[in-house]
Design brief:
heterodimer; A: alpha/beta; TIM Barrel; 3 domains; six-stranded parallel sheet; three-stranded mixed sheet; B: alpha/beta
Chain lengths: 473, 244
C-alpha cells in the first residue's frame, strides 16, 4: 500500500516537469500535455498488482537463441560500468544493492570486464546507420525479448553473482517513443514486481519523448545517449536518420534533472534520486576521418557542459563494406583508442585541458608515446619537477606518475624529505618519471635533459628489454 | 618469551596485552604451527575477550581506525610471519600515535601496508568472481581464497541477498559463512558434499556460459589480459570456466 502511494506521488513529478518545459518555449504544449496525461493514467491503472514472486518462470530453448542474437548485437557497446551508486537493499522482499566502487564479475577473452548483463531488447531497427550491424538493410536474424524474459534472466544471473545488474539497450523498433516505452516497461517490472535494486544502466533512444526519458531516469542508475560520431558531417554521412539535436537534447535534459534532484536532496533527505550514477556517452573511433583533436575537444565540452561521468570510445571494427567506411580487411585502431583513453583520463583526473594536448600542426595523438609524455617533452622548460616541493597538481603532470603515487608522495613527505629510494619503496613507477624529476635536487635520468635525448634513451631501453626476452628464449 | 595463541584475533590481541602488561614478547606464533626454539621460552596464552577488547580499543583510540583495519586485514592474510609484523607495527605505532599511516615506507609500516593491500584486493576480486548455485532454494558458493576473507564477504552478500539463504564455503580452511533470516555466522570445520542442483540450474549455467562466450569480440582477443584479471587459480570454481 505504501508502495502504491509512493508511486502515485512520483508519477506526478513528470507533470510538473512538462509544465516547466511548456512554460519555456513550446507552443503546442497543450497537445503534448494531453498525451502525457493519457500515458500517466494508463500507467497508473494498468500495472498495479505487484505480488512478490520467487519461482523460476519462462525458460526454454527459445531463450538461448534470443540471448545469442541479442547479446551478440549488444557487445559493441563499450560501457560496462557499475560504479557511482551506493545503495543498501532495504526494500520489502527485495534483492540487490549497489556498491559505489563498482564490481567487475567476469572477464571475457578479449580482456574486457563483464559487470552488467548487456543485451538489446530487440535488434529490429528502422534506421539505416552505415556502421551498425543492426541497420534495417542488413539481412541478419532478428529477435526480441519480452520484458518478463529480461527480468527473469537478470534476476537469475544476479542471484548467482554473475552480474552486478542490467545494461539495457535497444534498436529502434517502430519509433523512438515506442522503443523507449518498452525500455521503461522492463525497468518498471524489474524494480517493482521483481523488487530488484541492483545496478541498471539504460540507453536513451534519441528522439524519444522527454517525459519517457524523465520517467525512466527515476528508476535507472545510469543513463547514456550515444553521440556515435564527433561531428555533424560524419553523422550525416553515416547515420542519415539521426540528428545531433536529438542526441544533445536528452543529454541536457538528464543533466538538468540530475542537478535538480541533487538540489532537492540537499533539502529533503528522502526525495527521489534521478540517475544517481550520472550519464555517459560513446563514440566510434576510426570510422570517419575526424582527428583526435576534434574528438577530445568534444569530450571536453561534454564533461564541462553536461557533467558527463564518462565518454567512451570504441575502435571501429570493420564489419560491413561501404564506400564511406574503412575496408573490411583493415584492423581496428586499438592503439589509437588506447591513447584517446589516456588523454581522457588526463582530462578527468589530472587537470589537463584538451587544448594542452595538441599543437597547431599536429591534430592527432602520438602513437609511440603516451599523451602526458608528449606534453612533457613539448613543455620541457617546466621540468624537471622537484618531488619534495611541487604541488599535487604539478606532480600529476609528471609522465608515468599517477594519482595514487602523487597522493602517497604528498602524504609521505609531510614526515620527512623523500629520497629516490623511498620513491622506489612506494612502488612509484619510475620508468618514465625519472627523466622528469629531481629528488632532493638531484637528477636521476642519466641522459642530457633534452627531448630528443630522453626519447632516444627510452627507445633504447625498450630495445634492450626485447633483446633480453629473446635471450631468455 | 614467545607467546602462542589459538589463531583467533582476540587471542592475538591478548598476546599484545601481555606484551605490555606482563613480559615483553620476543615473538607471537600460532599454537598449531609453532616449533620450539632454543633461544626463548614459550607460553601458551589463553584468549581473554576483555583483555583483547582493551587492546582493540586502545588501537582505535590512541592510533586510528585506519590502523586498526590494517591490522585486522593483516591478521586475515596468509603471511607466515604476520603476527610478528603486527607486533612490531603496533609497538612502533603506539609510540608515534595518530599520524602513523603517513609513514608509508617506514620499515615497520610498509609490510603492513602491502599485506593490507593484498588482502583488500583479493576481497574486492572475490566479491566479483564468487559463483553461487541454487541447491534446493539455498544459494551455495565454493571458493578457495589465498587469504581468510570469508568474514569480509558476509555483510556484502547478506545485504545483497537479504531474503535468500546462502552458504559461502571456503574449501581450503573448511570454513563457511551461513546466512539465513537476516543474520549470518561463521561455521568452522565443516564438510559440504552430496547436494543436488535445483531443476533449472544446469540450464542457467549454460545460458551464462553462452553469454560469456558470445560477449567477447573476436577482433580484440587478448587472453593474457584475461589471465591478469582472473588468475588460473580462481578459475576452477567459476561457472564460465568449467568444462561441461
Amino acid at each position: 500500500m505504501v508502495l502504491r502511494q509512493w508511486r502515485c506521488i512520483y508519477s506526478m513529478q513528470p507533470i510538473f516537469m512538462v509544465m516547466r518545459i511548456s512554460q519555456k518555449n513550446n507552443p503546442d504544449s497543450f497537445e503534448q500535455m494531453f498525451d502525457i496525461c493519457l500515458f500517466l493514467l494508463y500507467d497508473y491503472f494498468t500495472i498495479k498488482d505487484y505480488s512478490f514472486r520467487k519461482t523460476v518462470g519462462i525458460m526454454d530453448d527459445n531463450l538461448f537463441e534470443k540471448l545469442r542474437i541479442l547479446s551478440d548485437a549488444a557487445k559493441y557497446d563499450v560501457s560496462c560500468v557499475s560504479s557511482g551508486v551506493e545503495r543498501k537493499n532495504n526494500t520489502v522482499g527485495g534483492i540487490g544493492n549497489a556498491s559505489a566502487a563498482g564490481i567487475c564479475h567476469a572477464w571475457s577473452s578479449d580482456g574486457r570486464c563483464i559487470s552488467l548483463l548487456k543485451i538489446l531488447l530487440t535488434n529490429d531497427c528502422i534506421y539505416d546507420c552505415k556502421y551498425c550491424l543492426n541497420r534495417v538493410t542488413n539481412p541478419i536474424e532478428r529477435a526480441a525479448f519480452t520484458p518478463e524474459e529480461v527480468a527473469e534472466l537478470t534476476i537469475q544471473f544476479y542471484r548467482r553473482n554473475y552480474i552486478e545488474g542490467l545494461f539495457l539497450s535497444s534498436a529502434v523498433e517502430k519509433s523512438p517513443d515506442h522503443t523507449m516505452e518498452n525500455i521503461y516497461r522492463v525497468l518498471e517490472l524489474l524494480r517493482y514486481k521483481y523488487n530488484f535494486w541492483g545496478y541498471v544502466h539504460v540507453k536513451v533512444i534519441p528522439g524519444a519523448n522527454p517525459l519517457l526519458v524523465q520517467k525512466t531516469g527515476m528508476l535507472a542508475d545510469r543513463m547514456s545517449v550515444n553521440i556515435e560520431l564527433p561531428t555533424r558531417e560524419s553523422l550525416h554521412i553515416l547515420a542519415p536518420q539521426k540528428r545531433i539535436e536529438n542526441i544533445l537534447q536528452p543529454m541536457s535534459l538528464i543533466h538538468n534533472e540530475i542537478s535538480r534532484a541533487i538540489e532537492d536532496r540537499s533539502h529533503f533527505k528522502n526525495s527521489q534520486r534521478f540517475v544517481p550514477g550520472g550519464q555517459s556517452t560513446q563514440m566510434i573511433i576510426g570510422a570517419t576521418p575526424d582527428s583526435d583533436k576534434t574528438i577530445l575537444n568534444l569530450s571536453q565540452n561534454l564533461y564541462d557542459k553536461f557533467r558527463m561521468k564518462r565518454v567512451f570510445f570504441s575502435a571501429y571494427i570493420p564489419v560491413m563494406s561501404s564506400p564511406n567506411l574503412p575496408a573490411v580487411s583493415s584492423m581496428p585502431p586499438l592503439l589509437r583508442e588506447h591513447r584517446l583513453y589516456q588523454a581522457d583520463w588526463l582530462m578527468r583526473f589530472y587537470y589537463f585541458k584538451s587544448a594542452e594536448l595538441f599543437t597547431e600542426i599536429e591534430p592527432n595523438l602520438d602513437l609511440e608515446f603516451d599523451p602526458k609524455m608528449i606534453y612533457a617533452l613539448r613543455n620541457i622548460d617546466r621540468f624537471p619537477i622537484e618531488i619534495n616541493k611541487a604541488s599535487y597538481e604539478d606532480l600529476l603532470r609528471i609522465p608515468g606518475l599517477g594519482v595514487t603515487s602523487a597522493q602517497r608522495i604528498v602524504r609521505e613527505r609531510k614526515n620527512a624529505e623523500l629520497s629516490y629510494d623511498s620513491l622506489k619503496k612506494m612502488r612509484t613507477v619510475l620508468k618514465r618519471a625519472k627523466y622528469f624529476i629531481t629528488v632532493k635536487g638531484k637528477y636521476y635520468g642519466n641522459t642530457k635533459f633534452e627531448p630528443e635525448a630522453i626519447k632516444a634513451e627510452i627507445r633504447m631501453k625498450e630495445i634492450q628489454k626485447q633483446i633480453n626476452i629473446f635471450e631468455l628464449l | 618469551m614467545d607467546y602462542l595463541y589459538d589463531g583467533t584475533f582476540e587471542g592475538l590481541m591478548t598476546c599484545i596485552y601481555y606484551h605490555y602488561k606482563k613480559q615483553k614478547a620476543a615473538g607471537i606464533y600460532e599454537l598449531s604451527g609453532y616449533q620450539q626454539s632454543l633461544a626463548y621460552q614459550s607460553e601458551i596464552v589463553e584468549t581473554d575477550i576483555s583483555k583483547a577488547k582493551t587492546v582493540s580499543d586502545a588501537i582505535n583510540k590512541l592510533i586510528s581506525r585506519e590502523a586498526y583495519i590494517h591490522v585486522y586485514y593483516c591478521y586475515l592474510s596468509n603471511d607466515a610471519n604476520k603476527e610478528n609484523l603486527i607486533l612490531d607495527f603496533l609497538i612502533f605505532a603506539f609510540k608515534y600515535g595518530r599520524n602513523i599511516m603517513n609513514f608509508y615506507t617506514h620499515e615497520k609500516v610498509l609490510p603492513i601496508n602491502e599485506i593490507y593491500k593484498r588482502v583488500a584486493r583479493e576481497e574486492h576480486r572475490v566479491l566479483g568472481i564468487l559463483r553461487f548455485s541454487d541447491i534446493g532454494g539455498i544459494l551455495y558458493a565454493k571458493y578457495s581464497p589465498d587469504n581468510d576473507i570469508s568474514i569480509l564477504l558476509a555483510d556484502h552478500f547478506a545485504d545483497r541477498y537479504k531474503f535468500e539463504k546462502f552458504i559461502i564455503f571456503d574449501e581450503k580452511r573448511k570454513k563457511a559463512v551461513v546466512y539465513a533470516d537476516n543474520s549470518w555466522e561463521i561455521k568452522e570445520n565443516i564438510m559440504i558434499d552430496n547436494f543436488e542442483f535445483s531443476l533449472n540450474e544446469e540450464m542457467i549455467h549454460k545460458l551464462w556460459k553462452q553469454y560469456f562466450t558470445d560477449l567477447a569480440i573476436k577482433e580484440r582477443e587478448n587472453i593474457n589480459l584475461q589471465f591478469q584479471f582472473v588468475p588460473a587459480r580462481y578459475r576452477k570454481n567459476m561457472t564460465e570456466f568449467k568444462m561441461p
